[in-house]
Design a protein that fits this description.
The longest helix is centred in the C-terminal third of the chain and has 24 residues, at 246-269. Helix 2 (26-31) links the parallel strand 1 (20-22) and strand 2. This protein has 367 residues and is an alpha/beta fold. The protein is built from 17 helices and ten strands. It is globular and about 70 Å long. Helix 7 crosses helix 10 (190-206) and helix 12 crosses helix 13. The chain has helices at residues 10-15, 26-31, 45-58, 60-70, 73-89, 102-113, 124-142, 156-160, 169-173, 190-206, 228-236, 246-269, 271-288, 290-293, 295-315, 322-343, 354-363, and strands at residues 20-22, 37-39, 94-96, 145-150, 166-167, 212-215, 220-221, 224-225, 239-242, 348-352. This is tRNA 2-selenouridine synthase. One of its GO terms (molecular function) is transferase activity, transferring alkyl or aryl (other than methyl) groups.
């Protein structure tokens, strides 16, 4: 492996999706890291905790001595082997700790003693995070945005992916943005969401040209909060209004929230447990909006949903779900969307079906 220098070219790291080895403890990694980073800690949480106490009580030298005692012998050898495998699989990568200090330097030295020169990110995670925060502020302030909007079930995310320069907020948040929107895998932490968003915006700005297309979202995408400045810019950005028939929208909702979700749950948990977890997901999503639906309407939709679930369980037929999907769209989501659309201040550039939206965007790349 050719020698490479340590780097502070954070933009290049993100634009090139450079493999990164995060040697911080798992508890630090869980709070937030950068997209694509793999956690391969120098110390586990318990070891870090003990070293931290020693540092506060006895100072750095004693803390370093304790760290060497805790990470020694077979434990040290196993971690070095893991780092060596990462370096072999990702010769173009880098490693980092929190500030680019003792932990990353020690990791680098141990790998070097094992025969591999592997560079580190100067300033560590703190510098990477600062770069991303500043970059997002600049991108939001100077960016040119277009918003794809439309009633629930029009398939906005599907169409967004066909536009020239999309940033998929729901994909970054791993949530579809409604009461029914959670996925079988967890959402990222707020910091991870912000970091993912910034990297996606950096790539949209530097790799492609023309306006950035975003899907119309509320401030919260599941539990992930949109940056206030971006949400404000989106409120005033030009709109592309996606329109579909009620029948098409019902089908899309059924495909996404019934067929795909039941398959995902059963793939993850097995047929029996997966079915029960899917059933709980669907009933729970409806229950979360029960107060806004009102008692009578909630009770009626719940009855339709339970009948549809029973039929799906008996013979796999999912069409009975249309009985609750259609009235939920017409009586709950549509009035809410129409009200929200009236509050938006951006001009409407185009209205129509998927072909009209995609066609307009592709012929107005720099509009």
């Amino acid at each position: 492996m050719a020698n490479r220098s340590d780097t502070d070219n954070y933009l290049s790291l993100f634009l090139n999706s450079t493999p990164l080895m995060d040697v911080r403890a798992p508890v630090e990694f869980a709070k937030g890291s950068v997209p694509g980073a793999v956690n391969m800690p120098l110390m586990n949480d318990e070891e870090r905790h003990r070293v931290g106490i020693c540092y506060k009580e006895k100072g750095q030298d004693e803390a370093v001595r304790l760290g060497h005692q805790l990470v020694a012998g077979d434990i040290k050898a196993q971690r070095i082997e893991a780092w060596k495998r990462f370096a072999a699989h990702h010769p173009e990568g880098y490693l980092f700790c929190f500030r680019g200090g003792l932990r990353s330097q020690l990791t680098q030295q141990w790998i070097q003693h094992a025969g591999i020169d592997y560079p580190l990110v100067e300033g560590g995670y703190k510098a990477l995070r600062r770069f991303l925060i500043d970059s997002l502020d600049n991108l939001v302030e100077s960016g040119d945005f277009r918003i794809i909007s439309g009633r629930t079930g029009t398939g906005k995310t599907r169409v967004l992916q066909q536009l020239p320069n999309p940033v998929d907020l729901e994909g970054l948040a791993n949530h579809r943005g409604s009461s029914f929107g959670r996925q079988v895998t967890p959402q990222p932490s707020q910091i991870d969401f912000e970091n993912r968003l910034t990297v996606a915006m950096l790539k949209a700005h530097h790799v492609k040209e023309g306006p950035v297309y975003l899907e119309d979202e509320s401030r919260l995408v599941g539990r992930c909060a949109m940056p206030d400045a971006l949400k404000e810019r989106m409120t005033h950005a030009p709109l592309l209004i996606l329109e579909r028939s009620l029948e098409d929208r019902t089908r899309i909702i059924r495909e996404d929230y019934v067929e795909a979700m039941s398959a995902d749950y059963m793939s993850r948990d097995g047929a029996e447990a997966g079915w029960l977890n899917f059933r709980d997901y669907l009933l729970g999503a409806l229950a979360r909006i029960s107060k806004r639906l009102g008692g009578d309407r909630y009770g009626q939709l719940l009855g339709f949903m339970e009948q549809a679930l029973a039929q799906q369980e008996r013979n796999g037929d999912v069409l009975a779900h249309d009985a609750w999907i259609q009235p939920l769209l017409q009586d709950y989501y549509d009035p809410m969307y129409d009200y929200q659309l009236n509050q938006k201040q951006g001009r409407v550039l185009v209205r129509g079906g998927p072909e009209a939206i995609v066609g307009w965007a592709n012929t107005n790349v720099c509009a």
